[in-house]
Structure formats: C-alpha cells, structure tokens
C-alpha cells in the first residue's frame, strides 16, 4: 500500500476542531514541525494536545498555543513556555500534568490494547485525586487509564512508502509509542526511501501503524536550551 501524501497540508486535511492529538518529540527534538505548521495554517481550534512538553513561545506547540488553538494540554514538562504559563494562570487553558513515566506508560498501554494499569507514581498527591487506589504487597498504587488520540503526529529520520520508520537518538522517546496509540498516525520524515532500503533490524516502528507519510524539508531542529562548559 502506498501511504505517501504530498505534504503536511494533505496529511492533516481531515483533522478538525476538537480533535485529540498526540505530538511526538522530546523538548524540541524530533517534533513534527511541518504538521504543526499545517495545523496553524488551517486554523482549527479546540484541540486537546498530548505531548511530553509544550514547546517554547515561538516554536513547536507554542505556535498553536499563541493562536489559542489548544483547549487542553496533557503533558509532563511545560517549564519553557511562558505563554503556556500565562494561559494556565488566567484559566484560559485546561491542563493535565502527568508524571513523565506515567505519561509514557499511558501511551504505551494504549498501543498495546491495555485499558489501565497501577503505578505508585503520584499516590498521595493531587495527581491521585478522583482515581482508584489499591494496595499491592503493602504498597499503595493508583490506577491510570491508557491514553488514546484521534491522530498521532510524529517525525522520523527515515521512512519508506509502506510506513516503516527509523528514528535517531532522543527523537524516538515518545514518538515510537505514540505511533501505536493514534487512531490515525501521520509520519513526516527527513528522508523518504524505497521499500527494502531500510534494514529490517533497524526499523523502530513497522509500517502497519502508519497511515500517512510525507517527506519534509528545511527542518529547523531548534535547540531548546543551549549550555556551555
């Protein structure tokens, strides 16, 4: 099956107001830059965005936040986005903060078809409010539900027209799991190759999980925080 679409606009054509989206990447590393830009251009609103972080003020998810296109964020770390903070403190944005390991596992469970699991992370804190708790081996745990999305938007280093994907380093962190948790998964890649060009032992996400794929260009790959010795 040929899953190639021409560009980001074609890939996200059926994402509409109120959609639940997963967006891959870690910090600004490996984020679906072109898909986010297409969402900004389309101007859809009321989005629920599931992402490890919220980008920065003028890049990544920050672009959607700046234009008030996001209704709710489900994230782990949001400390680099001043506009996110402002909207949160003024009651303009719904926010569900999730411990990072719990967030990753909730996404993984969705891809595995497991509806819920028990974890000790967050027990006894605000994270546990309204959730079922249970004791296992004299230790308390709380129940977390799997996270699903209408669309998963991810970026990979290489992919083929069948949707097989290869990531580089940190970009794999959330993206591989999100590819399995979306009802429709859209992948953008830096390099689109022919079937057979990828070493099967190096494929991180098999094509069965990918519905649409396109090659982007001129990726900015911005550094979130530059440090020197």
Describe the structure.
This protein has a single domain, classed as Glutaconate Coenzyme A-transferase. 22% of the residues lie in helices and 28% in strands. It has six helices and eleven strands. Helix 2 links the parallel strand 1 and strand 2. Helix 5 packs parallel to helix 6. The longest helix has 13 residues. The model has no long low-confidence stretch (mean pLDDT 93). Keywords: Transferase. This is 3-oxoacid CoA-transferase subunit A. InterPro entries: 3-oxoacid_CoA-transf_A, CoA_trans_fam_I, CoA_transf_BS, NagB/RpiA_transferase-like. One of its GO terms (molecular function) is succinyl-CoA:3-oxo-acid CoA-transferase activity.
Break the fold down into its secondary structure elements and pairings.
Layout: H1 8-11, E1 20-23, H2 33-42, E2 47-50, H3 61-66, E3 70-75, H4 82-89, E4 94-97, H5 100-112, E5 116-119, E6 133-136, E7 139-145, E8 149-160, E9 165-166, H6 172-181, E10 182-193, E11 212-215
Parallel strand pairs: 1-2, 1-8, 2-3, 3-4, 8-10, 10-11
Antiparallel strand pairs: 5-7, 6-7, 8-9
GO molecular function: succinyl-CoA:3-oxo-acid CoA-transferase activity
Keywords: Transferase
Pfam family, one: CoA_trans
């Amino acid at each position: 099956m040929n899953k190639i679409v021409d560009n980001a606009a074609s890939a996200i054509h059926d994402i509409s107001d109120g959609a639940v989206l997963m967006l891959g990447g870690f910090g600004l590393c490996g984020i679906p830059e072109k898909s986010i830009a297409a969402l900004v251009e389309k101007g859809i609103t009321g989005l629920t965005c599931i992402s490890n972080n919220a980008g920065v003020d003028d890049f990544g998810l920050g672009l959607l936040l700046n234009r008030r296109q996001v209704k709710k964020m489900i994230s782990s770390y949001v400390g680099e986005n001043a506009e996110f903070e402002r909207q949160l403190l003024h009651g303009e944005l719904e926010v569900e903060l999730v411990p990072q390991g719990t967030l990753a596992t909730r996404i993984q469970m969705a891809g595995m078809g497991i509806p819920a699991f028990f974890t000790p992370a967050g027990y006894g804190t605000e994270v546990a409010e309204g959730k079922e708790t249970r004791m296992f081996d004299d230790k308390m745990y709380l129940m977390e539900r799997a996270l699903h999305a209408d669309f998963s938007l991810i970026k990979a280093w290489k992919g083929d027209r069948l949707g097989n994907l290869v990531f580089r380093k940190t970009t794999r962190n959330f993206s591989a799991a999100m590819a399995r948790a979306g009802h429709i998964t859209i992948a953008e890649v830096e390099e689109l190759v022919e079937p057979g060009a990828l070493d099967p032992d190096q494929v991180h996400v098999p094509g069965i999980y990918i519905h649409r794929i396109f090659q982007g260009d001129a990726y900015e790959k911005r550094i979130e925080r530059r440090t020197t010795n």
